[in-house]
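Reviewer 2 asked us to include a model.

Predict the structure of this chain.
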Amino acid sequence: MNAILNTCYLSSLADGIKNSLIFYSHLIPIFFTLFLASLVFLKSRSNILSKIFLAFSLTFSLWMIGDLITWTSNNYYLVYAAWSPLVFIEIVFYILALYFIMVFARGSDISFFKKILLFIPALIPFFVTVAQKSVTGFYYPVCEAFNNGFLDQYKLYLEILILGIIFIYLLIPFFKKKVSYSQKTSIIVIGSMFLFLSVFGITEYLAAVSGYYEMNLYALFIIPVFLVAITYSIFTLDIFNLKVISTYFLVFGFIVLVGSQLFFVSGTTDKLLTILTLILSSGLGFLLFKNLHKESEQRIHIEKLNVKLETLLKQRESLTHLVTHKVKGAFTRSKCIFAEMLEGTYGTITPKLKSMAEGGLKSDNEGIQTVDLVLNAANLQTGIVKYDMQQIDFKELVLKISDEMKNGAVSKGLKYEIDIKDGIYNIFGDAFWLKEVAHNLINNSIIYTLKGSVKVGLERKDGKILFYVKDTGVGITDDDKKNLFKEGGRGKDSVKINIDSTGYGLFTVKLIVDAHKGRIWAESEGENKGSTFFVELNVV
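Predicted model (structure tokens):
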């Protein structure tokens, strides 16, 4: 602080009020800082972050105490002694703030060499202060000291550099493709520290330049808010529960404001009423915090379960790809052997051996299709598949797939009908995956219809494109409807008709339809009463 008001003559009523404001603006941040630092340290003594935060808080509180003395004391020697180390102390708590952010962002302590580099800039103000050169003069009539000009400039540029580095740490999560919960926490913590130091430094600089030194006093009132945000974010992980945050702030603020009245009231009755109100408020606040603590623990437990679930899903994804790769490789190798037998690579084979090779080849092809189905479902579910969205004619796509599937229905003795209404059926989608949708639904109807008919339909209805496949097959029971489009959700009796049923076909279809902002559902009157599958898509 380059200059200060004349605090040697605080005798008038107006000056008395100003003196109260000075105490009020300093004592509240000191109380909050020391209280939060102690709470954090007691909660996790072995945590390196809590130790750094404690050192930062103690250093900041020491600066606040020294600044308070320079504002209020009329003892020249005491003001001089408190004023001299202020610049050095301020630089130290800025460096500790940067140290805190670096460790928080890394998740572990930095190396000893980096610590040396980090704290080397504090040596210059330290030696200047020890040599008693930090203050170049003292104006006794108004108890005002004059700072070393070089030290002031050094402090300004160093604090700007520290704020710039912290701002870079703040921006890093925004460059990630997906901001996770922990990265959101980092934004809150680093952002709070950045605002804390920015408000402190900017108001101090503007006060020195403008001469309006009360600006520092008012700025100090908001510093506890940032401290609470930093502490609460790290050690409760409840930062996105606005109800809990606002409750903590309101209760803490109310208790501090009630307690601060003891500095202003003079009557015995007023003091007793204030103390009684403070005790009741603290008791109610304790009960409220106890309930919120339970809620916070439950939230943390849920968050840990979510993290564990995410890890398990990644492990399952890796296992799925490994298994499908191995299984598909085994099917492919045996498929090649059967194919070469049929092509005569191993010489002429008997009719019986040829029939067995054909059966083996067919079985391997079905196995490969099953593996691909499971793998596609896994890739679609995790977002690995990137859709090639283009304008396509869905009518042309359905006609082509329907014609290709016709022979399979006819060979089973089924009546196969294609009913496509006239009109324009342009949609925005991925032709490859939409073919999978049409193919899967038609193929399912053919497989699960033992007699009767299969009808493929396409029409425009209510401004949407409606594709459907209707059959007279085994139908869908109420129990099966509950799991119809879920992963592995095959009907309980489906394997009796289709031994290769996996439950991944309709699950894959739903993932594809959802990705196209469409809707899929099924209707059936029950077992052995047929079913109809509908897909609704948006027109271009």
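Residues 268-343 form the longest helix (76 residues). Residues 1-17, 236-242 have pLDDT under 50 and may be disordered. We have added this to the supplementary material.
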